[in-house]
Design a protein that fits this description.
Elements lengths: L1 E5 L8 E5 L9 E11 L1 H7 L5 H4 L10 E9 L11 E5 L12 E5 L3 E3 L6 H6 L2 H13 L7 E5 L4 H13 L2 E6 L4 H7 L3 E4 L12 E6 L5 H6 L2 E9 L6 H9 L3 E4 L6 H12 L7 E5 L3 H9 L6 E5 L1
Parallel strand pairs: 8-9, 8-11, 9-10, 11-12, 12-13, 14-15
Antiparallel strand pairs: 1-2, 3-4, 3-6, 3-15, 4-5, 5-7
Helix pairs in contact: 4-5
Amino acid sequence: MKAIILNEFGDTDKLIYTDLNEPQIAADEVLIKTAAISINPVDIKTRSGKALAGKLKDLLPVILGWDISGTVVAIGDDVTEFKTGDEVFGMVNFPGHGKAYAEFVAAPAAHLALKPSGITHEQAAATTLAALTAYQAIVQKAALKKGETIIIHAASGGVGHYAVQIAKHVGAHVTGTSSERNREFVLELGADEHIDYTKVSKNEWNVQADFVLDCVGGENLLLAATTVKPGGRFISIPSSIPPEVQEKMKQQNIHAEFFMVQSNGDDMKVLADWLANGIIKPYINQFDFMQMAGAHAQQASGRTRGKIVLSI
């Protein structure tokens, strides 16, 4: 089968195309012939030696990737939910060794859902890690309620563009931040208000919300932290929260935490239903599997609207 491996961490030239044997499946797994995959910032960070590289370094050579959509071609002895021929999608073994950059993927059945019939494999592959992150953070961790306010930093990105749609579905008042270039996109997603982060200094933020979802991290984290109401909730997706920021938020009775998504087939079923009913829609940047280096470069630019998807 076609696959991309990393023998060592580094730049995009470390992404090596090769031929491998199809993976063997365990009793609780299915074998999927992959039709489409998507990538995320964690792919780029891990490939470069950060993020999950510390967890995977003893497994080199590794196959990166976690987001897949495809067709079941074999099932393990203990699998009852799926059968051969089913079209499925999901985020596989995250945070762990997903091995999604391949023509065939062995995936735990518990991490998958049936792909809605009216949704393409590309749309399904896009609605995995990023959409799960937004769903688990907003609905499960923050328990955002109808009538509450939310600020989503980087609202035009992979997690952000799902977060806007999910928050509106919950019934919240949504403010999204992005550059002016993506203003109309963020508003079309359903945001009630937009803030151009390039025109706002640290002292000019005059908006606060019950819940703030920061999808930027780094230096923006300190800025984003000022946009939470006392007694509110704050979740950082890309970065851990420094102790001094945690302490400052604690003094204002703000619950703040770093959050990492987890593979979950039941949550994927919720996303499948929302996809089928048009509640969430992915915005896709299309690449071919042979363009992985270019896809990584695009993701690393930090200027990607929506999701990057590669067809196999």
